[in-house]
UniProtKB/TrEMBL annotation:
This is AAA domain protein. Residues 20-154 form the AAA domain. It comes from Bifidobacterium longum subsp. suis. Coiled coil: none annotated. CDD domains: AAA (cd00009). InterPro entries: AAA_14, DUF4143, P-loop_NTPase, Restrct_endonuc-II-like. The lineage of its organism: Bacteria, Bacillati, Actinomycetota, Actinomycetes, Bifidobacteriales. Residues 225-388 form the DUF4143 domain.
Length: 450
């Protein structure tokens, strides 16, 4: 079976948009950026000219003389022994973070040679920290690539009709009879994760140990990058933070505590390490909200937050989750006291372009807490995640009453809409944003609905 990525549709839309700018795809290591571009180019262009600045660093010299697009094109044609024709050739700058001047050149391609189709890929960190060169602000189209979502996994195993229904947020159209099958597929996805190499290993033979070997290879690559891109002292702090993240998530309230990294540790010692990991693209920082009002950024706490990883499969490998857990799937939702499920939900929200936050009662006497909070339009939605069949929602009820909000409860439950609360199955999270858009539109037509 072959991986299916919804980003391919985005690339086709980019190509057919009149006067499109160069496309810059950012993403963490191993999220499949290079594969995506090559897959897209096949059938869309007469040829592709790939410039891999990591594999052939000498090609960066082409950009050092000046940034005249026509001269650059001529010299790249000679280096590749291929013609680069406007509209017929895709010019692919891979690992562009290794050539800051190539990144700057995109500005001049937009202004002086807009007929050429150019896609560049690079890491979050390398692109955001490109030294003294000028970033082509406003001269490129930006796109972020994340691990495959659950619906992309469904696409890849031939379940595209249910995947489309979930993505479109049409949960009410899904028959209850499918719930056992979907929960089983979700547990497989959560263990394997959405990293393309791990998912490909699973689709090739289904052997859990082969998947774990790939996941471990990815972790080893991360560790090498910690040394390559960070000074020794910072690199050691990055490792300490990274390796204790499973312990942070295993705590009851998930809140990141510096003392878990090292006894007596202070924020100023490890803030840079957290920033590095965020810029590298392998963690998501989820800040606490002190109130649930629009705009949410105005109510974020600067010092209190949770940390989730980029991928459930990577979390399982980093924590040493037993390979046999994939066989005994009944325990999967309860691992890390339910944090494995929260990790999955966070991952799916981020893949939709949603920035998750959480809420905790600022009153020291109160213990109410909401797992995630999201904005949709001018509405705020508190989200409670249930890792078991227990569907009590005391904190959610408290928050919805206090702030006059409609709550979302996600768990091993069927879809059901109530006056103040909507139940969403775990396997439908990838369509939550679209679902809420539809509900908001309906509520404007009929204020009695949400």
């Amino acid at each position: 079976m072959k991986l299916q990525r919804k980003a391919l549709k985005t690339l086709k839309q980019w190509k057919t948009t009149p006067d499109h700018k160069p496309l810059l795809i950012r993403g963490a290591r191993q999220t499949g950026k290079t594969w995506l571009v090559n897959e897209f180019a096949n059938g869309q262009y007469d040829n592709i000219v790939s410039v891999d600045f990591m594999q052939r660093p000498s090609l960066s010299g082409i950009f050092e003389q000046d940034l005249d697009p026509q001269r650059i094109i001529r010299q790249l044609e000679l280096a590749a022994n291929q013609r680069i024709l406007p509209g017929r050739t895709l010019l692919f700058f891979d690992e562009i973070q290794e050539s800051p001047l190539a990144l700057t050149s995109l500005k001049y391609f937009t202004e002086q040679a807009p007929d050429y189709d150019i896609i560049a890929t690079g890491s979050y960190m390398g692109i955001s920290k490109h030294g003294k060169t000028s970033f082509p602000v406003g001269k490129v189209t930006m796109m972020n690539l994340h691990p495959l979502s659950f619906t992309e996994y469904l696409d890849s195993i031939g379940q595209d009709m249910i995947a489309d229904t979930i993505r479109e947020g049409r949960f009410e159209d899904i028959p209850q009879a499918l719930e056992p099958q979907m929960n089983d597929l979700l547990k497989t996805y959560m263990w394997v994760g959405g990293m393309p190499a791990a998912l490909s290993a699973h689709l090739d033979n289904g052997i859990p140990q082969d998947v774990r070997t790939v996941q471990q290879d990815i972790l080893n690559a991360y560790d090498l990058d910690f040394s390559k891109h960070a000074a020794y002292t910072l690199g050691e702090r990055i490792r300490l933070v990274w390796n204790t993240l499973p312990s942070q998530l295993a705590k009851e309230n998930r809140k990141f505590v510096y003392g878990v990294v090292r006894q007596g540790a202070r924020a100023r010692e490890y803030e840079e390490a957290l920033t590095w990991l965020t810029d590298y693209g392998i963690i998501t920082k989820v800040p606490r909200l002190d109130a649930l009002h629009i705009p949410l950024p105005g109510y974020e706490s600067l010092n209190t937050f949770k940390i989730y990883l980029e991928d459930t499969g990577i979390l399982g490998a980093l924590s040493g989750l037993d390979v046999n857990t994939l066989v005994n799937k009944s325990k999967l939702f309860s691992e890390f006291k339910g944090a494995f499920v929260e990790q999955y939900v966070c991952q799916q929200l981020v893949a939709q372009g949603i920035r998750p936050r959480y809420w905790a009662n600022p009153n020291p006497q109160g213990n109410a807490e909401i797992d995630f909070v999201m904005e949709q339009g001018d509405e705020v939605f508190p989200i409670e995640v249930k890792s078991s069949s227990n569907i009590r929602a005391r904190s959610l009820s408290y928050v919805c009453n206090r702030y006059g909000l409609h709550g979302i409860r996600i768990g091993e439950i069927g879809y059901r809409k109530q006056s103040w609360l909507t139940n969403i199955p775990l396997w439908c999270v990838d369509g939550l944003g679209e679902y809420l858009k539809r509900q908001i539109e309906k509520s404007r037509e009929n204020p009695a609905t949400i």
